[in-house]
Amino acid sequence: MSAHPVVKLKKVAVVKSTHSPNSTANASDAINARSLAQVVAAVNREGGTVPDVKDVHLSSAVGLDARLADTEQLAASLGAATRGVHALIARAIELTEQRCRAEGQRAVDVATASAVRSTERRMTVEREAAVRQAVAETWAEAKAKEQAAVERAVHETELRCAEEQRIAVQLATSAINLEWGKSQEEVAAENAAKSFEQAARAAGAALMAAQGLQWRGHAPAKPAAAAPVEPKPTDATQGSSGGLEFF
């Protein structure tokens, strides 16, 4: 802060006198005594000491020019003091504005950093949630595919085993029938009849399952199950009633 001049206002006690060359001596003495008493009283009020009488000079030459000079000096002193006060106020306002700007900038920086950290935390949480969801979906899809593949492999294995078992049973039955003296035509007819019977049973089961699904979707009441289709007996099956059957 720049230094400003300090104006000190001094109290100037002017002892006025109305002494003139045409006044009488008694009037002059009375005025001088009264002025001296006023000076002594003023000094006592200020807490000072009464000066010696010889230090008090009574001026009888105070006129309008002296009053104007004193007034101008007082006005100049007041103007200088006012300008100094205005400069101090302006400097204080400037410093306050600078401090407010600095505080505002710090507040903006803190708010920006806080917003950045909050955004980073939110993005991290969202990214982790998305990764967990993607991993869970991928894991569930992989498990479903694995389960479907296992079920398909088991079904295919069961079908293959059933077919191999059927062929093995037919071969064993044919061999036994041939050992018992049956002709190959009779054995072939018997195998064909058994195959037809198995196919008829499978078709009946599939038909019942399809009808059950249709009835569950359209009809509230469950109808009676259809009787399985029984193949008509042939000469080959009648003639082979005494043979071994593995079904």
Question: What's the gist of this structure?
Answer:
The protein is an all-alpha fold. It is built from 4 helices and no strands. The protein has a domain at 180-247.
**What is the residue-averaged pLDDT?**
69
Number of strands: 0
Structural class: mainly alpha
How far is the N terminus from the C terminus?
Answer: 116 Å
User: C-alpha Rg, in Å?
Assistant: 66 Å
Globular, elongated, flat, extended or rod-shaped: what is the shape? rod-shaped
In N-to-C order, the SSE pattern is HHHH
DSSP helical segment count: 4
Helix content: over 70%
Sheet-strand content, in percent, reads: under 5%
Region (Disordered): 219-247
Biased composition (Low complexity): 219-229
Protein name: Prohibitin
Organism: Prymnesium parvum (Toxic golden alga)
Description of the structure:
Residues 219-229 have a biased composition (Low complexity). 72% of the residues lie in helices and 0% in strands. With 247 residues, it is mostly helical. The protein has a domain at 180-247. The longest helix has 116 residues, at 64-179. 3% of the residues are buried.
Topology:
Blueprint: H1 25-45, H2 64-179, H3 184-218, H4 235-239
List keywords for this structure.
247 residues; rod-shaped; mainly alpha; Prohibitin
